[in-house]
Amino acid sequence: MSFDDRQSLNLVPFVSVDDMMNVVLDIGIESCLSGIADYIAQDFARWELFDKTPRVAAHSSVGVIELMPTSDGVKYAFKYVNGHPKNTREGLQTVTAFGVLSDVDSGYPVLISEMTILTALRTAAMSAVAARALAPKDADCMAIIGNGAQSEFQALAFQALLGIRKLRLYDVDRTATRKCADNLAGRGFEIVECATPEDAVEGAQIITTVTADKQYATILTDNMVGAGVHINAIGGDCPGKTELHRDILLRSDIFVEYPPQTRIEGEIQQLDEDHPVTELWEVLTGRAEGRTSARQVTLFDSVGFAIEDFSALRWLRDQLERTGRYENLDMIADPDEPRDLFGMILRAGAKR
Fold it and tell me: What is the pTM assigned to this prediction?
């Protein structure tokens, strides 16, 4: 009997934080990252089938709360996610999330999951999918500027998918760099803890910027980026929040997920609305070129897009039968007679 056949209509599989951690430990984080990357690549290859819209955002002076929906016509997914940089100072996560995967035919949910950990996995997997098409083919050294909650996931994804073995780490908070280095110890990396961002980018063929402050920032200046580098810019992800000096953008070939969203939230919010960019799905399907020369500077201006979350939820649901790491929640009122919802309440009352 298949996993789908075993599920009563009123019971929805729920993956808790504890379940998600055990999924990662059961499967192995490298296999999780590679698996999610495969699902993302599959879904980007059928990009034109998906509903696409910029995420719905509620901004405040201290952060943002967003809804990210999409559908391929068979399944529908959305993610609730926040971004509050101040939370770190209060002992809270900067980013938290949960998501739902549903069946389009009935409208019934088929999975509810935590997505704080799953988003960290899918963000790193997405970065590595892009870098496989855009980074120098012989790249073995990556700088990570910003060593918070996402940094280890980025390092492990680039190791698993691109073979990165050298890391140069920098954060304004030296304890964050020490945390990242300690967490990655014994995983096959040569790690250098750097005192300045300039030191971090020295010799790196890939530069990942993943800082959290909600402001126009200049994490990379133009003189720090040499020829032949791939920049994986993932920290700038809402209006008024960037990491790169504008001059870097002007001499880079820029690749994005969904231009209507990225022009509002990404590094390219600094540029004219008609500045040319290439959609990553076109590169992954061979409709557009990625890296074309050894001296080219490529920039993946990533803000995160709903199709990536759809892919991650789809991947996770396919692991449930294998891992058994979920519980069923009684989420859907499902009376024997669909029109008699009130009668179901009465009958329940009679049994009390």
Answer: 0.94
* From 237, 272, 301, 309, active-site residue: 237
For residue range 297-352, what is the model confidence (pLDDT) as tens digits? 999 999 999 999 999 999 999 999 999 999 999 999 988 899 999 999 999 999 99
Say if residue 246's pLDDT is above 80. yes
Structure tokens that stand for 292 in this block: 């074309």
Domains annotated for the chain, with CATH where assigned, are 3-117+307-350 (3.30.1780.10), 128-304 (3.40.50.720)
Three state DSSP letters for the chain: CCHHHHCCCCEEEEECHHHHHHHHHHHCHHHHHHHHHHHHHHHHHCHHHCCCCCCEEEECCCCEEEEEEEECCCEEEEEEEEECHHHHHHCCCCCCEEEEEEECCCCCEEEEEECHHHHHHHHHHHHHHHHHHHCCCCCCEEEEECCCCCHHHHHHHHHHHHCCCEEEEECCCHHHHHHHHHHHCCCCCEEEECCCHHHHHCCCCEEEECCCCCCEEEEECHHHCCCCCEEEECCCCECCEEEECHHHHHCCEEEECCHHHHHHHCHHHHCCCCCCCEEHHHHHCCCCCCCCCCCCCEEEECCCCHHHHHHHHHHHHHHHHHHCCCEEEECCCCCCCCCCHHHHHHHHHHCC
Q: Is 330 a catalytic residue?
A: no
